[in-house]
Amino acid sequence: MKPQIFMFVSAVLALAAIGLDAQVTSGQQPDRTITQAASSGMPTTDPDKMIAFDWIDAHSEAVNKLSLDIWDAAELSFREFKSSRALISFLESNGFSVEKGIGGMTTAFVASYGSGKPVIVLFGEYDALAGMSQKAQPIRESLLAGAPGHACGHNLIGASTAAAAASVAKIMHQRNIKGTLRFYGTPAEETGSGKDYMLGAGAFKDVDILLGWHPNDRTRVTFEYSKAVAEMHFKFTGVAAHASIAPYLGRSALHGVELMDSGVNFMREQLNEDARIHYVITKGGGSPNVIPPEAESWYFIRANKNKDVLDIFEWVSEIAKGAAMMTRTQVEINVDSDNHEVLPNRPLAETVDRNLHSVGAPKFNYGENTEARKMQEGMKGNFKFPFAPNIPVCSGPSQALSIHRCAPDSCLVRPVQAGGEFRLIPIGLLFPQSSSLAPRFRIPYSRRACDCA
Ligand SMILES: [Zn+2]
What we know:
The chain is of the alpha/beta class. It folds into two domains: 313 residues, Zn peptidases (Aminopeptidase), CATH 3.40.630.10; 113 residues, Alpha-Beta Plaits (2-Layer Sandwich). Helix content is 38%, strand content 17%. It has 13 helices and eleven strands. It is elongated, with a radius of gyration of 24 Å. The chain starts with a helix and ends in a 12-residue tail after the last helix. Zinc ion binds next to loops.
């Protein structure tokens, strides 16, 4: 939404890729003397990085438009048809060759520039969230009531990362730099995990470095682990009957779901503290006077280690089967995704951190601060802490450091300090092994209801 934020992110990602490229190919450290960035509109001294910054400045309007187009399209997981097409056309017009339909997914693609090693990948997400439809304005108002919308900024991720890729490709072209730069269009980050299908299709086999980012309320490089997460559906099937005339003839699938949820909730006491289980009932019957013949729940299981997720999943599955036995129903278990924990890489994180400091924090102008103040007005009721009377403006390279390491409270007021969070992920550690659940249960992409280009 805010042009400045993702132009800033483009600049840092571009810098990161340049720095990493230098590191991989020549062992040199990236230039640390840069003190200004394209996003600040001030000159820098490194000629290679200037190519990227100039490109980003010159194309800011097109990148803004790309972000707003994805915002307006607001498409759910696996249905990102317009969004992926917009990104593909942007990347093709900037010299990338695009392979579509990766992993059988209509909205997954790989855009490539250059050839040979190293292979550096910037990945972009562009799926929206259900029910979050919103006009591009600071006051809450849906474009279309109940429709999907971008709430955590995947429109920024897609557009900004594509801009970073295009700007680095420009450097590679002008400086005749060898290596492969790719943009991975990865669908379904919110639910369904499109990257799993891309992994299954071998898209990550030759990748040396994978860089991504996600909007956040602070500007920093993350060097931290994430939880492993698996999601699955439990579909109970019973027998329909009239709930008053002949309930004894029915077998309630909803009872199966309820007993399973109860069993899981009793199980929680025995779990390690890092474990998380959350669920919703996605189908519970149609009318109280009919014994529900079908009912379904949707679970997420998380833990710090994938191994623990698998152990919990086995236990939850036994509870589901127990609930089916108790209710004389059947249960079918479908695993939807199985993602390992992210393991960060320190040298990569430090490289991006240096580049982040070189670029500096985003600067917000008067108009942006005014818009942010309007946004705060509507959000006041939702937060217990008071908003600062003045919108903090953190700017300049040194402020980027302070935001990251010792942020004064005034610089952390939400949502004004929105800048972006960079995730540094070495590919070999991101996917230490193939999912062990997916081959056994995973819903094939072809069986998804949304497979409907
Ligand atoms: Zn998100």
